Amino acid sequence: VPNRDLEVYDFLSAQLEAGVARSGAGIEAATRSLLDMLIPARQGRIEVVAGQLGLHPRTLQRHLGKLGYTFSQLLEEQKRATAERMLRRGDTSLVEIAAQLGDAEQSAF
Known about the structure:
- This protein has 109 residues and is mainly alpha-helical.
- It is 70% helix and 0% strand.
- It has 6 helices and no strands.
- The longest helix is centred in the C-terminal third of the chain and has 19 residues, at 71-89.
- The radius of gyration is 16 Å and the shape is globular.
């Protein structure tokens, strides 16, 4: 982000790290929340999510593993939830939903 405020970034990063340290479950909720935003933009990758959380991808995977999850599992759950929301709204074609979820073809969706 051009002209970003590094002091604000450092403050927010410290707050996030402190929150994650206090609650392991917080990382699951944060991961799900980020995936909700990132999946439609085709950015639902562990490197992107971990970067947003200020973690290394292996560290994120380790935290999730302690809670009984894998990143892939959460990604698939959030993709399914996103697809269900879009289908309920009824204003998006199956081709568009498949594309937003990262499926190459509608049949894969």
